[in-house]
Protein: Dephospho-CoA kinase
Amino acid sequence: MSYVIAITGGIGSGKTTVADTFYKNHNIDLVDADVIAREVVEPNTIGLTKIIEHFGKSILLENGYLNRSELRQRIFSSPDEKKWLNDLLHPLIREEMLRQLSLAQSEYVILVVPLLVENQLQYLANRILVVDVLEQTQINRTVNRDKVNQEQVKAILASQASRAERLAIADDIIKNDHNIHDLDNEIALLHNKYLLLSQESINEENQ
Structure:
């Protein structure tokens, strides 16, 4: 398996922008937990079949896809239902992440996991890159991007790991409050660093 760099950060921190830059500028393979979380509940998957068995067909849209907003409402006020869903999906997501990581062809691979700290998935990575921004920046970006109010964003922030908790596990940190040119330069430096680390890892394995 390739050397794994996990990228994490809170909502609105710019994780996707950072990951996409590694891919576009440096041709590094990406594995994205959020993308996989959608894939494991597509029609005809084990995940969606189990959800239908548990919640009934009313959990589906007319086209047969999962009604995500309906599912969120079902689990929002029920810790037991949320636990049931997490117990179903987390192993499926983790298994698919590992499968995709094993197929990576680039010198190292980027694993994007928004809830890395919350789900204690640090063990999946050789190194952890935290994308860090000020809380007000997170609020402003998410309000503009998702067209929601500040109270909703603050509620999401409260449900996620704190900046301090994420920074405590970081091997590398990108401060993403600045402009895109600075970001490109930072990522280029990290890319060179990760190439060296991945090569060192290969050399150690071959000794």
